[in-house]
Amino acid sequence: MFKLSYKRFASLLFFQLVFLCVDLGINSFSYLARGDKVSIIFLFLAQDVCLILSFTAIIFSLYSTYVYQAGMAHLLYEKFRVPLLVAMMYFILCISLHTWQVVDHHKSPYLFQWPKALTALFIIQRLFSPLYYYLYKRSALKMSDPRFYENLDWITSAIK
């Protein structure tokens, strides 16, 4: 049984890391497509889809654990609350930034004079992204721990 779980979670972990790499790449190089509105919309859409898929993957990982299936979801929530909240906040920041940039792009695609609020949002999103990457990768690696998929004593001790 462990071999099957290992293959399943190794592939899930691989896709989670791919989603993170795509997000990092788009964050790093999206400014190169500023001249083409279709390209920038496609890149932002791809980034948002990867964020949704990565959030779905971590939720899927949580739901497939023994701890969740035994009805102790609150234990998982306690362990993974901060990464889930950071992922949701990062997604909101990305959607806000992308929407504002696409709307602003229509007015002047090559102008790099952004309003101060857009510049602040850009800086906040970029500073928030390493925190998201770290917590998401740590959570994904934690979820591949076989202790979450077996009936162990730490679960019963956490209940008491």
TrEMBL record:
Major localization class: other
Topology relative to the membrane: Multi-pass membrane protein
Origin superkingdom: Eukaryota
Annotated localization: Cell projection, Cilium; Vacuole membrane
Family membership noted in the UniProt record: Belongs to the TMEM138 family.
Protein purpose: Required for ciliogenesis.
Name listed for the protein in its UniProt record: Transmembrane protein 138
